[in-house]
Amino acid sequence: MVRGRRNPLYFGLPVRLKTARQNLSFDSVALASGLTDGSTVLHLERKRGHVPRLDTVERIAYALGLSPAFLAYGVESDGSQPTEGLRCEGVASRLRQTRVARGLTMRALARAAGLTDTAVRSTEAGTSMPSIATVEAFATALGVSPGWLGYGIGPMELPGRRRVAATPAPSP
Questions:
Q1: 83-136: per-residue pLDDT in tens?
Q2: Does residue 124 lie within any of the structural domains?
Q3: Residue 78 lies in a domain
Q4: What is the pLDDT of residue 164?
Q5: What is the DSSP string of 56-107?
Q6: How do residues 132-148 score in pLDDT, each as one tens digit?
Q7: Same domain membership, residue 132 and residue 95
Q8: Does residue 41 sit within a domain?
Q9: Torsion of CA 5, 92, 50, 52, to 10 degrees
Q10: What residue numbers bound the domain in which 137 lies?
Q11: Does the structure show a pLDDT above 70 at 82?
């Protein structure tokens, strides 16, 4: 838990990656993903280093035959590989359209997400590829699914989280 709140969805990436990789070597996954070597995959699986960018997770997901929304956030969906380009390349337009539809300025979104104005501006302009943590922060602030915002996969709306009612203690 993070300060009394649920852990972000991307925290589960190392476990999902390890489960999907099974008997494949780090280098073979990296090679299939177009990465330079297996150290990126190793570090992601072992929770070392920085949080990966959307495109890195998408490439690894496709190499493993997974949906990038599932690998990044655990969001079940049909995320078959697109015929041209990467799905994450649409994050800029999805972010801008959703922000405008919600009536938020870049500064208001940045504050709601706990990020900087520059993070919003550079993501919307397409000048930088955000990390999966940044996209999840944007998605939470906008009330949309991070799988949809980052990859255009699944429904736009956040999947409802069920609350389990506490069972009353038996009467004496």
A1: 578 999 999 999 999 999 999 999 999 999 999 999 999 999 999 999 999 999
A2: yes
A3: no
A4: 35
A5: HHHHHHHHTT--HHHHHH------PPPSSS-GGGGHHHHHHHHHHHTT--HH
A6: 999 999 999 999 999 99
A7: yes
A8: yes
A9: 100
A10: 87-151
A11: no
Q: How far is CA 110 from CA 118, 135, 141, 158, in A?
A: 8, 12, 9, 19
Over 139-169, what HEC string results?
HHHHCECHHHHHHCCCCCECCCCCCCCCCCC
128 domain-assigned: yes
Q: What is the DSSP letter of 11?
A: G
| Residue 88 neighbours by CB under 8 Å, 6+ apart | 54, 55, 58, 68, 129, 150, 151
Q: Residue 172: its pLDDT value, please?
A: 46
Same domain, 68 and 14: yes
Q: What is the pTM of this model?
A: 0.85
In CATH, what number is assigned to the domain containing residue 25?
A: 1.10.260.40
